[in-house]
Amino acid sequence: MKNKKSQSDMSSFKVLSRLLRFTKPYTFYLVFTLISSVVSACATLYAPVLIGQAVDYIIDINNVDFDKILPIIIQLIIVVLTGAAFQWFMGYCTNILTQRTVRDLRVTAFNKLEKVPLKYIDTTPHGDIISRVVTDIDTISDGLLQGFQQLFTGVVTIVGTLCFMISINVSIALVVILITPVSLFVASTIARLCSKKFKEQAQLRGKVTALAEEYIGNQKVVKAFCYEDKTEQEFENLNSELYTVGVKAQFYSALTNPSTRFVNGLVYAGVGIFGAMNAIGGGISVGQLSCFLSYANQYTKPFNEISGVITELQSAFASARRIFAMIDSEDEVSDAGNKVLTDVKGNVRLDDVSFSYLPDRPLIQHLSLDVKQGQQIAIVGPTGCGKTTIINLLMRFYDTVEGSISVDGNNIKDVTRDSLRLNYGMVLQETWIFKGTVKENIAYGKPDATDEEIINAAKAAHCHSFIKRLKNGYDTVISDNSGISQGQKQLLCIARVMLTMPPMLILDEATSSIDTRTELKIQKAFAAMTKGKTSFIVAHRLSTIKGADSILVMDKGKIVEIGNHEELLAKGGFYAELYNSQFKKT
Asked: What does the alpha-carbon distance between residue 381 and residue 362 come to, in Å, rounded to a whole number?
């Protein structure tokens, strides 16, 4: 919480400074952007000098010195073309710089999601994470593009204009300089108002995305419970809140342009009045006065442009704070050493293990278990007793709070996560199919598998027949929403594990979406697959674990009974009660 708060309070300067760090690999484009900006601004500022010189050669009616004006016109054309060329080149470099910087930022953000502990993914709305990686980074892209172009050109123009004006007449230049703080005060005041509202807008946008993702992904449940009206109302309330904050943010940002234009009018009027008095007194020529009036406009223009992109910049900074909050979130605890598990037999030991997701809500307490190679351990118990939590601890998705877990005598905290997880084959109740061919989905854990190996795994998982009925067989492109049933998805997930054949297996309600007839076949396949392998089976249907070597009966995070099916039934205890509740006649 402290980290999140500090990131949300990060100043705009720190945000900009951190964003600029991502531009370091593209310093070449940044340097040429600056050079192009300077050349373009100098060319633009030199044009009024030439125009002023030409005006001084227009003395009276029928008294124009064309011989001296013509070379000035040629110079003016060259200066204008040069300024335009470097303006284009600056835009080209800025676009490359921005897009590549944003690309790296998006890669960094996505890679971070691979490093955060599962707790972060479990406790953060998925829609909000998607909003950060996609929408917020697009907002940063727009803000950076506008910011680089306007800030570079604006600063150079302001400094250059002041230098040119001072070189012509110091006293008139002082008029401009004295009014400048008013423009800066107006712009900074509005910027502060905008910053707060755009921060709120970015947060609400993430909430709207999260809510939409949640309800769209679970539309069947929404319709089944006739929750459409309440869903619409909930979305409308949040969307209305976003609308209100968005209107205020846009209103404050819209004040910038007219406010700065008013200040610009003061500058122009001050230069015109004071300059005219100087021209009457012979202090400057009419051409120099026209040059000063042009500079008065050019000097104030950058303030208009910079203030005009305050909307994009403040919105970009608000989005950047959300991105950096995610990037700076705590990483998964790193591997304690580089030890790699090899030649795993499958002896697993849990020694006085305690764990809780929340500190004030104990779950697993002082759990000890000794599993020998090749044993089949079933874990049963009521919902919320800690069955799936044990799986999370075995796979080291979460680390134990107390106690230790070892594989073949190696504490799993002392070995690399990759080597630990590669020695487990896991089939979960929740299926996951990515967009790709059937062949690619089955070979997810073994990309170099041959076609023959893939087909044999599919046959073992009893999904070969339905795959052959697909339009292109094993080359059919499927996805999580491609129309195949939940049971077929689960069969493909089982085939993945049957292809890799690791020494240890975890089956968490692996047949929950499969019909009874197919389940019997799968159980035979599992029996062949688990032979000689250590396996952990989480089951609600107790008929599926009758043949387990040992059944752990859990309740409130503790093992209350342990034994095989016959022994536990004979005890007439908690297991017998669970079993009879499923099979007793009514």
From this structure: 17
